[in-house]
Structures are given as structure tokens and as C-alpha cells.
Write a structure and sequence with these properties.
By secondary structure, the chain is an alpha+beta fold. The protein has ten helices and 43 strands. The protein folds into five domains: 169 residues, von Willebrand factor, type A domain (Rossmann fold, 3-Layer(aba) Sandwich), CATH 3.40.50.410; 76 residues; 94 residues, Sandwich (Immunoglobulin-like); 94 residues, no CATH class; 91 residues. Helix 7 runs antiparallel to helix 8.
């Protein structure tokens, strides 16, 4: 009776010790991606040449390929060595790609030496966990180190393993000796290490790199009822969780174990799945096996608010997915992915808000192709969103069409003398001789094709309030562009859409539709023949007309980074500075260059070629593009090039 009791006590003690060791690493962000590093011996012995005992090279390559296809690591580094490191290539999402398949197929074992430790040191030194990777390193060789350098310069196995200074707490290395014994000095280094193990396999055999004892890395759990196939059936497992999953437990199953969760969990919530060290012959310094789990269960953390939305996407149309994020998720920091060619996606979220929208815009969607967009929060795996179906028809927006070819361009801040002759004359008259002479020093050059800007979108002449309670802008050509429309609270349409001439048009969502709160006096909004006024409620499915009645608010290309200022724009001039002020803010610019193109410096396309120059304590107006005029505040007449700017001026955008 004493022997069974003693055996039971030993088993309980072993299980308790394993459970105690299965804890999530503390003190930093846990990995979100997987990386596999293969350090492959390419000496001739791997083909049975020289002192080689078997031709195994092609089968070793096949084992590496099988691992990448089955485990699908996010990143792979493939290194080869013989008389030192021979090649190093990195691949992102390589499984099934032509580049990866070709790189693996083209490897040849034709080296003459096995400088193992020196090569391993060079392979491990650059690796770091800072990129959010959990790394598994596989060293694959059929030989032993034969570096003949003198004792003081030869790299020892301890030094080689210590080179992985940037490793994370879950990173592992396995030295796989193919048909040879691991030398005593290497065995001692492996046993003294905290992260490395050794495995010897018989001559002529090639291991399964995802097999028993080699488990590790990261797995994404999408179904709590069936964990990913990580460990062999019957392997004793324990679970390590953080405070958010307190109470979670493993449930044994016929095939794979399951997770019993305490409730809904945030996407990407981590857990640790642990197993005891591998047993059996061939292992040296076997380590407890730990696999990081990231829970990305369907619907976790997100609530879909408009499941009845039309998810058919044509050219020029939008699909808007309205969502609510769980506490702890920041929609404003999320990014949209998983989109095919011809589709663009943005997250529309106000800072601090939990309700947000993902807007998918069809530029050239592929008809009949189903897309599964994803949403990625910082530090978390991607979440799948409802699918969208591409369809034929629609109209490609102007911004999606290729820009017209351009001829000779001039470097920013420089112009050719011929192009600047009118400005030069005006500057001479106004006293800005030095500035004008400096202005003409540059020579024209041909811009690279990538520098060409797309044509500006047409002016907005209509608004559509759609059935899904979103707003879209309608141009004179019929192009439709969606606007990030909040579900609650008042908003300014000019600020949301980055269309300055709509600034001051305020509205909010109402039970019966869209309530208009304010319309500027120089902006007409109409529904058919009736003018819309403050207090009116616009029903879903309504088309509104928009017209402007003042030159300062005339439709024009976007103001770029100045769009948030609103309209009209005023120009306030100091001794060596200008301030552009709108209804919602201002932007200050100190003038230091002899000539400043305000549009280029402030990245506001509508102001390009509006140039000023310093002349003593005055700021001269050098150039004004045809679609603008600058006039003193309170006056109707425009300033001419060469005149000194007054302390306060107004910028008018002219129709044209």
C-alpha cells in the first residue's frame, strides 16, 4: 500500500511543479508574431561527400519546407554556413510564396568546412525580440565544428549561444545533430544554457521539425472548443493565464483539448500552454515546452451595430461597417487590412469613443470576389470583419484615375528665371530686388514619376444622407465620397470631410434622421426647391444640394493639412512671420527663406504658388495663382504682386 501512495504523491508533486512553472512572462509586452530561424549546414558532407555519412540535404530542405507550410510563421530567416556564414535571407509570410520556394530549392551543399560555432555566433547576434516575435531557432548539421583557428581566437559553443542577447523569455534554440554525436563541449554549453537544447538523430534520418519535443512559438486560438493541434494526444498539459482569464481551464477532449473561459475576453488575450520536457533517447538538456496562445475568438471585443448594411461594393461606392469596441480597445489606433486590389479602407473614430466605423471604398473592386477585411489593434492579432462582395458597375472616382503626365518640374523652393519673370518685375517695383534675384537661381529639372500629384477632386455640390445613416459628398460629375459620420453628438461637416467650404455646417443624428443645427449665412442647403434651415430633420435617403454665395467660400481643392482651420481664411502678417487663421484655429509660420511658397511649405495644395518674400521688415506678395485673390481685410479690391502685405488680409477662393 505504501508504494502506490508514494507513486501518487510523486505524480501530484510533478504536476504541481509543472503548473507552478507555467506562468506568463512578466515585465513587458508579449509577442504577437512568430519567427523561425534555420541555420543550415551547406558543407559537402550533407550530401555524403568527404566525411559525410549520408546524402540527406534534399530531405532536410523538404523538412524545412514542410515546417513552413504547416506552421506558417509570420517571418522566416534562412541562413547557410560552411566556412562561416554563407548567406542570410529574410522572408515575410513565406508559406507558399514563389520567392521562398525558389530560395529553398536553389540551396546547394557544396561547402568545404563546418565552422559551426563561429557561424552560429554570427547568426544569433542580430536577432532580437524587440519586433514582437517569438523565435524558434533550428541549427541543422551533420558535422562537428572544425574551425582550426588557434585557441585564443576560436569561438566556443558557450560564446556562440551567449550571442543571442536580444532573445525573449519564450525564444528557444534546438541544435539538431544529423547522424552524429554532439561534442562534449557543446553538450556542456547546452546544459548550462537557459534556452537551448540538443537533439541527435540516427544516420540517414531527418526529424519532423514540428514533432514531439520541438513544440513552441505562438498559436492563434479561434475556437475555444478545439485548440490548435500543438502537442501529441496524451501529452500532459497545463495552462497559464493572466488576471483577465482568471478561472479559465483546460477541458480534455477526444482529439484536441478545449478551453473553458470565464466569459467574453478581449481579442488577442494571451495564455500559455505548457508540457513537460520531452523524453526519450537523443535529447540533451531538454526544456519544458511552452506555447503562447493568443485568443482571437469570433466577435470577441467587437459588436457589429449594422448587420443589415449593404455589403456589395462597386466602383465609387462605400460599405460602412459600424462597430462598438469593448473597454480597453482604442478604435482610433486600429488599422484596416485584408483588402484586395481596388479597395481601400479607413477607420473612422473619434478619440475616446467606443463606437466607430470601418469605411471600405471601392476604387476598382474585382467583381464576384469576396473580401474578408481585418482590423488590427496595436499589439494584438488581426480580427476578421464581416465579408464584402465585389460587384461590377459604378464609377471610378477621379482621385483613382492616373494623373496626367507632367513635363519639366522645378525643385520645391526653386523656379526657373523664365517662369519667374513677372514676379521679378513686380518685386523690383516693390523693393524686393534681393529676394527676386535669389528666387531665380534654380534650374528646372524633370520630376520623378512618383512625384506627380493626382488631380484634385471636383467641388462638392450635393450631400446624400443614406439609409445606413451615413453622409456622402456628391460632386458635379456625380462622384460619391463617404464622410465619417458620428452616431451621436453634434459635428461639423467641413471638419469631418476636410472640405473647407462646408465648414460651419453643423448637424447631429436624430431619432428620425439628421437634425441640422447650423447653416452659415453664405451657404445654401436645399432639398429640391426648398431651402433647408436650422432645426430641420433630414430623412434617410435624401439628396441635398449645396451652393456657396461668397468668394471666400467658393469650392476649391482641399487645403491639405490646413483643412481643419475651416473657411474663410485670414492672413495675419508680422515682422517675419505669417499666421493663417480660420474659424477653428490658426497656423503660424516663421519666414526665414528669401522666398516662401505658402502652399508647398504648409502642404496645402489650394495655396500653391501663393508666394511671399521678405524685404526688410515688410512681407511682399510675390505671386498669386489665378484661382485666388488676397485683399486687405474690410476692402474689396485685391492686392497685386509686389505689394506689401497689410497686417490683416483675407484669402478669397475664386470659382473657375
Amino acid at each position: 500500500m505504501r508504494r502506490p501512495a508514494l507513486l501518487c504523491a510523486l505524480l501530484l508533486t510533478s504536476a504541481a511543479a509543472q503548473e507552478a512553472a507555467c506562468t506568463l512572462p512578466q515585465g513587458g509586452a508579449l509577442p504577437t508574431r512568430t519567427r523561425a530561424v534555420f541555420v543550415l549546414d551547406t558543407s559537402g558532407s550533407m550530401r555524403g561527400i568527404g566525411d559525410g555519412r549520408a546524402d540527406i540535404f534534399e530531405r532536410v530542405k523538404a523538412s524545412i519546407g514542410a515546417y513552413v507550410r504547416g506552421q506558417r510563421p509570420d517571418r522566416v530567416e534562412l541562413l547557410t554556413f560552411d566556412s562561416g556564414l554563407r548567406s542570410r535571407r529574410s522572408f515575410a509570410q513565406p508559406a507558399g510564396t514563389a520567392a521562398w520556394n525558389a530560395a529553398l530549392a536553389n540551396l546547394k551543399a557544396d561547402g568545404t568546412n563546418t565552422h559551426l560555432y563561429r557561424s552560429l555566433q554570427g547568426a544569433l547576434a542580430p536577432l532580437t525580440a524587440a519586433g514582437g516575435d517569438v523565435t524558434q531557432v533550428f541549427v541543422l548539421t551533420d558535422g562537428i565544428d572544425n574551425d582550426t583557428r588557434e585557441a585564443g581566437r576560436a569561438v566556443t559553443p558557450q560564446v556562440a549561444l551567449a550571442a543571442f542577447r536580444g532573445r525573449g523569455p519564450l525564444d528557444r534554440l534546438t541544435y539538431v545533430a544529423l547522424g552524429t554525436e554532439i561534442p562534449p563541449e557543446a553538450r556542456a554549453a547546452l546544459e548550462a544554457s537557459t534556452y537551448a537544447s540538443g537533439l541527435t538523430v540516427p544516420v540517414g534520418e531527418v526529424p519532423d521539425l514540428a514533432g514531439a519535443g520541438l513544440e513552441g512559438g505562438l498559436r492563434r486560438v479561434t475556437d475555444a472548443a478545439r485548440l490548435p493541434p500543438t502537442f501529441a494526444p496524451g501529452t500532459p498539459l497545463t495552462l497559464g493565464v493572466g488576471p483577465a482569464l482568471k478561472g479559465a481551464a483546460l477541458v480534455p477532449g477526444q482529439g484536441r483539448p478545449a478551453l473553458r473561459l470565464p466569459g467574453r475576453v478581449l481579442p488577442g488575450e494571451p495564455a500559455l500552454l505548457c508540457a513537460p520536457p520531452p523524453g526519450g533517447a537523443g535529447w540533451i538538456a531538454p526544456r519544458p515546452r511552452r506555447v503562447l496562445l493568443r485568443l482571437t475568438l469570433p466577435g470577441a471585443g467587437l459588436t457589429w451595430l449594422n448587420p443589415g448594411a449593404d455589403r456589395t461594393l462597386r466602383a465609387g461606392e462605400d460599405v460602412v461597417l459600424r462597430l462598438r469596441a469593448a473597454p480597453g480597445l482604442n478604435p482610433a489606433a486600429a488599422a484596416v487590412g485584408g483588402l484586395g486590389p481596388g479597395v481601400r479602407g479607413v477607420v473612422e473614430a473619434r478619440p475616446g469613443a467606443r463606437e466607430f466605423a470601418v469605411r471600405l471604398t471601392g476604387w476598382r473592386p474585382q467583381p464576384g470576389v469576396t473580401l474578408t477585411p481585418t482590423l488590427t489593434f496595436p499589439g494584438l492579432p488581426a480580427l476578421a470583419l464581416p465579408t464584402v462582395q465585389g460587384a461590377a458597375g459604378g464609377r471610378v472616382p477621379v482621385a483613382a484615375r492616373p494623373p496626367a503626365p507632367q513635363g519639366a518640374q522645378v525643385e520645391p523652393g526653386r523656379r526657373s528665371l523664365g517662369a519667374l519673370w513677372p514676379g521679378l518685375l513686380a518685386a523690383l517695383v516693390g523693393g524686393g530686388l534681393l529676394a527676386a534675384l535669389l528666387l531665380g537661381r534654380g534650374r528646372p529639372r524633370r520630376a520623378a514619376p512618383s512625384a506627380a500629384r493626382p488631380a484634385p477632386p471636383p467641388a462638392v455640390e450635393g450631400l446624400t444622407y443614406r439609409e445606413d445613416r451615413t453622409l456622402s459628398l456628391v460632386s458635379a460629375q456625380g462622384d460619391v465620397t463617404g464622410v465619417p459620420t458620428p452616431l451621436g453628438g453634434p459635428f461639423d461637416l467641413g471638419q469631418l470631410s476636410s472640405v473647407p467650404h462646408l465648414s460651419g455646417l453643423r448637424a447631429e443624428q436624430h431619432r428620425d434622421g439628421l437634425r441640422i443645427l447650423r447653416i452659415p449665412p453664405d451657404l445654401d442647403v436645399s432639398q429640391g426647391a426648398r431651402l433647408v434651415g436650422p432645426g430641420d430633420v433630414i430623412r434617410p435617403g435624401t439628396l441635398l444640394g449645396v451652393a456657396v454665395a461668397r468668394r471666400a467660400r467658393a469650392p476649391h481643392p482641399p487645403l491639405g493639412e490646413l483643412a481643419g482651420l475651416g473657411l474663410p481664411l485670414a492672413l495675419h502678417v508680422g515682422a517675419q512671420s505669417v499666421r493663417l487663421r480660420g474659424p477653428y484655429g490658426e497656423h503660424a509660420l516663421n519666414l526665414s527663406a528669401p522666398v516662401t511658397d505658402l502652399g508647398r511649405v504648409l502642404r496645402a495644395p489650394a495655396l500653391e504658388d501663393l508666394a511671399v518674400s521678405l524685404s526688410g521688415r515688410d512681407v511682399l506678395l510675390l505671386r498669386v495663382p489665378e484661382h485666388l485673390q488676397v485683399r486687405p481685410a474690410g476692402e474689396a479690391s485685391a492686392l497685386r504682386p509686389g505689394a506689401a502685405l497689410p497686417a490683416h488680409a483675407v484669402i478669397d477662393f475664386l470659382k473657375g
